[in-house]
Every structure is written in C-alpha cells, then in structure tokens.
UniProtKB/TrEMBL annotation:
NCBIfam families: spore_ylbJ
Pfam families, sorted: Gate
Keyword Transmembrane appears in the UniProt entry: yes
Record field: transmembrane: 50-71, 78-97, 131-157, 205-227, 290-312, 319-341, 376-394
The protein's name in its UniProt record: Sporulation integral membrane protein YlbJ
Upper taxonomic lineage: Bacteria, Bacillati, Bacillota, Bacilli, Bacillales
InterPro entries noted in UniProt: Gate_dom, Spore_IM_YlbJ
Domain Nucleoside transporter/FeoB GTPase Gate span(s) in chain numbering: 42-141
Highest taxon of the lineage: Bacteria
Record keyword Transferase present: no
Keywords: Membrane, Transmembrane, Transmembrane helix
Length: 402
C-alpha cells in the first residue's frame, strides 16, 4: 500500500467516524455548532469585515504600494520581505487572524511578493487582536485586565521573534532584484502607477472588496463551526481526556498543574475554549494558567490554521512553513511570559486582591466596551452585510446572464 492509498484510507476513516459521532451525539453536535455560530456572527464577522474591505481598497488604490516603498528599509533588513509586508504586519496585529494570511495572499496574487517572501511574511503576520486578548481572555475569562498586559506583550514580541527567525528561511536575495532608495516622490509615483493599472471604477472596486471580504468570512465561519463541533465531539467521546492524561505526566515533570493538560489539548484545536478552560482550572497557579494560554494563542489552534490553509490554497504559498512558525510562536510566547511575570506580577495580583475595584489599567476599559458592543450589535452588522452581499451578488449574476 503506497503513501497515497494510506492517506485516502485515513481521510475516509476520519470522515466516517466524524459522521458516526454526529449521529450518536446530535445534541452535543448542535451545542458545538451554535457556540461556533455565535462566535462567528457576534465577534469574528463584524470585527474582521472592515479590515478586509479596507485592505482590498488600499491595495486597489495603490496605498499599500506607497507604504511598501517607505517601509522597505525597515522590513527588508529585519525580515527579508518587501516593505509592503509592514502593511500586512500592522493589519494582522490590529484585526487578528487570519487577516495576515488574507492580505499576504492578495499581495502574492498582485505579484508584490515572491513565493518565498510570502511564506516568510505569512508566518509572522497572523496574530490575535487586542480585543480578543484583553476583552475575551483577560476580562472575560480571567476577570483581570492586567493579565492582558502580559499576554499581549508575550504574544506580539514572540510574533516579531518568529519573523526574525523566519528571515533565514528560503534562498538568498532573488536574482535581478533592484533595491531602490525610498522617497516620497518615488512612493507616490508607484502608488499612482498601481492605481492606473487597476482599471476598475471606484464602485466596482468597492463591490469587489465587499464580496471578497464576505466570501472569505463565510469560509472562516464554516471552519469555526466545524472545529467547534469537532472539539465538542472529542470531549464527549473522551478522546480529549485520553490525550490529556498522557500529557499530564509531562506537565508534572515540568512542575505545571496536571489539571491544565485538558485545557491545553482543547486549545490546540480551538483557542477560545482552551483559554476559558485554562482560566477555570482548579488548584493551579495563575502563572501556569497564563503560560498555557500564551502557548495556545501563539499556536493559534487547528481551527485558525485550517482557515489559513484554505486562504493560502488559492496561491502557491505553502502551508508547512506557517505551521512550523506557529510552534515557534507558542514557544517564544511561553518564554516571554516567564520573563515578564516577575516585573508584572505585583500589578496582576494587586488587581485580583481588589475584587473589582478600579484598576490602574482603567484605560483598557474601552477595549472591554468595544467587546461588549460587538456582542450586542455585531449580529445586526453581520445580517446587514450579508443582505448587501446577496444584493450585489444577485445583481451581478443577473447582469452577467443578460
């Protein structure tokens, strides 16, 4: 039996077992599906939609090319990617995964990146956004905004370290590449040339941006729901418990609470559930809980990785370097969490002891308010946007047929 036949057998068996589990545990599957759907239409869709639309328009109008020329002296020496990578990095940090993969794939389609440069760039431009770290994890799960400080610092510094490591990935500088000295005039000239090259009217470009964003978000929503159901089924079939029991021995050798093995396994599949279970783990040190969450955020979970793999499949960007980078990111995040614990421990424990009194991090309250706003008004924005998408899509389909 060759490798291809073994792969076919494994895939067929896995899907069959999943179908059987759906039949045996329909109630649990429904609960997982509803939980994933709520996450998507309340938070993910409304928070990512503006970034996806704006990024498409910025690429079409040539603004990304303008930014790329100016950031060339910064991005090229540090990360061995063109200056346009700075745009992907900033948008990825602001909006969260999988924005970095979406923007990187678009830049690759526009031939502003080589395949190797795109693989380097996508490895460190996908990160969790501040709203999720502070609003959902720190405030929602740990009930402590100060925890968000150490999680965010370790997460974003670790991501930059991944970029510095991945600069050594791939071949040397491509032949024929000419490095131009950046200037405002050159940047504006390239921006103007890029805009003229894209001959779409503004209305057409805006419509394409909306439809492209919604299609990507529908795909992301499908993966979120699928992995939410999968995680629930793994839990009720006790597969997660079996895996965590084997991991508990390793955790005990590292002097980490064995109760965190189950949240760790859950977090490998889906970061939200893993982070929540880690925050609720009994008889465990807060530092150990934060370490587990830091790794889970860096690894991103198989759910996010599947989303990225689907986006990258539209290009010649390989997924494997991204997967290795996620392991690096998780390890870097753990190391920085340990280093930052002593300087920030007093602030974190002081807030815990205050039991809800106004903390010194009161400026983070706006992040919490935004998270609450998304939870209330996010579904309305999602429904409105889907209606606009249906209108644009049906109108274009009708015009095409006529």
């Amino acid at each position: 039996m060759n490798k291809s036949m073994v792969k076919t057998l494994l895939l067929g068996t896995s899907v069959t077992l999943l179908a059987i589990a759906l039949i045996v545990y329909p109630k649990e599957a429904l609960e997982g599906s509803v939980r994933g759907l709520n996450t998507w239409w309340k938070v993910v869709f409304p928070s990512l939609l503006p970034f996806f639309i704006v990024s498409e328009m910025l690429i079409g109008f040539g603004v990304v090319k303008f930014i790329g020329i100016l950031l060339e002296p910064f991005m090229r020496p540090l990360f061995r990617v063109p200056g346009v990578g700075g745009f992907a990095l900033a948008m990825g940090m602001a909006s969260g995964f999988p924005s970095g993969a979406k923007i990187t794939s678009r830049l690759r389609q526009e031939k502003q990146l080589t395949a190797i440069e795109a693989e380097r760039l996508v490895s460190f431009t996908n990160s969790s956004n501040p709203i999720f770290i502070f609003g959902a994890v720190a405030v929602g799960f740990f009930h402590n905004p100060a925890v968000g400080i150490i999680l965010a610092l370790s997460h974003y510094i670790g991501n930059i370290c991944v970029g510095l490591v991945m600069r050594f990935y791939g071949s040397a500088k491509p032949k024929g590449q000419v490095t131009q000295k950046p200037s405002l005039s050159l940047a504006f000239h390239e921006m103007h040339k890029t805009r003229l090259k894209d001959k779409r009217p503004i209305g057409k470009l805006l419509g394409d941006a909306v439809t492209s964003a919604v299609q990507s978000l529908l795909m992301i929503g499908g993966f979120i729901i699928l992995f939410s159901v999968l995680n629930k089924l793994l839990y009720v079939t006790h597969i997660t418990a079996v895996l965590s029991s084997g991991l508990a021995y390793l955790f005990s050798l590292c002097h980490i609470g064995t109760e965190l093995s189950l949240p760790f396994i859950s977090g490998l599949f889906e970061i939200t559930l893993g982070s929540r279970l880690a925050s609720e783990a009994p008889d465990t040190l807060l530092l150990h809980q934060i370490i587990i969450v830091s790794f889970v955020l860096g690894f991103s979970g198989f759910s996010v990785q599947a989303q990225v793999a689907s986006i990258l499949a539209e290009t010649d960007i390989r997924f494997f370097p991204f997967f290795i980078a996620r392991i690096f990111h998780g390890c870097f995040a753990v190391v920085f969490t340990i280093f930052l614990w002593d300087p920030l421990r007093e602030s974190i424990t002081t807030f815990q002891a205050s039991e809800g009194a106004l903390p010194v991090f009161s400026h983070l309250e706006s992040v919490t308010i935004l998270s609450q706003w998304l939870n209330v008004y996010g579904p309305l924005l999602t429904i409105f946007t889907l209606c606009c998408y249906i209108y644009i899509y049906s109108k274009r389909t009708f015009l095409h047929r006529s």
